[in-house]
From TrEMBL:
GO MF annotations in UniProt: ATP binding
Keywords: ATP-binding, Nucleotide-binding
Gene3D superfamilies: P-loop containing nucleotide triphosphate hydrolases (3.40.50.300)
Protein name (database record): ABC transporter ATP-binding protein
Annotated source species: Paenibacillus septentrionalis
Domain of life according to the entry: Bacteria
Signal peptide: none
Upper classification of the organism: Bacteria, Bacillati, Bacillota, Bacilli, Bacillales
Domain ABC transporter intervals: 5-227
Amino acid sequence: MSVVLEVRDVHKKYWRKKALDGVSITVERGKIVGLLGSNGSGKTTLMKLIAGLAQPSSGTIRVAGASVGCETKRVVSYMPDVPLTESWMRVKDAIAFQRDFYTDFDDAKASEMIEFMKLNKHDRVNGLSKGMQERLQLTMALSRNASLYLFDEPIGGVDPVARGKILDAIVEYYSPESSIILTTHLLKDIERIFDEVILLKEGRLLMQEEVETIRMRRGIGVDELFKEVYAEC
Ligand SMILES: Nc1ncnc2c1ncn2[C@@H]1O[C@H](COP(=O)(O)OP(=O)(O)OP(=O)(O)O)[C@@H](O)[C@H]1O
C-alpha cells in the first residue's frame, strides 16, 4: 500500500513553547486515522504543518512524495477548527469560492452533499448554527477529490442523532485512494470509523497503532485506551 503522508522528526516551537517535539508518523492511502490527544498536545499544530499553513522548526513532511508547498496544497483538503467562510457569504457563495479555488472540486459530489447535509444554498453563513456551519465546512472540504483530508474537530457541534449519519457520509464520500486524518474529543461516537490512531502528549508521539491491534492485544477500544493513557491529565 502506498504512503500518502510521511512526517519525520518534526519539531515546532512557538517562541519557547515546544508544540511538537520530534514527531514521526506515516499514513498509508485509504486509511482513516484519528489524531488524538488532550488539549494542547499539538494536534492542530501538526495539521497546520501538513496543510502548509505553518513551517516546522525542523524535520520534514512529505505528502504524496512531495515536500509541503504549492504542489501538496493542491492535494490536501483541510477543514480547520474555525470557519473558512466570510460573513457576507451565503451557502452557495461558500461553495462557489471553493470551486473557484480548487481544480479538484467535484460539482456532483458537492450537490449530493448539500442535500445530504440539509443545507439551504440561500442561507447566510453567519446565520448558521454551529452544527450547520460544521456541515458546510465538511461539505466544502469533502467536495474536493483530494489525496489527504485533514479534519480538525469536524462534528463537535453536530447533534448526536445527525452525528452518526455524518460519519457515515464521511466514509462514503471520501475515495479509498485518499486518506483522512481527523481530530476529535468525541471518541465514543467516532472511533468506529478509524483504521488507526495516533496519540500525542505534550507534543510527543506516544503511539501510532491500528485500532484492530489495540482491540486484539489490549482487549479495549480507543475510548478506553484514551482514558488510560491520559488518566493523569
Ligand atoms: N500561534 C501560537 N502561538 C503560541 N503558542 C501556540 C500557538 N499555537 C499553538 N500554540 C501552543 O502549542 C501547543 C499545542 O497547541 P495545539 O493547538 O496544536 O494543541 P491541540 O492538541 O490542537 O489542542 P486542543 O485539543 O485544545 O485543540 C499549546 O501549548 C498551544 O498553547
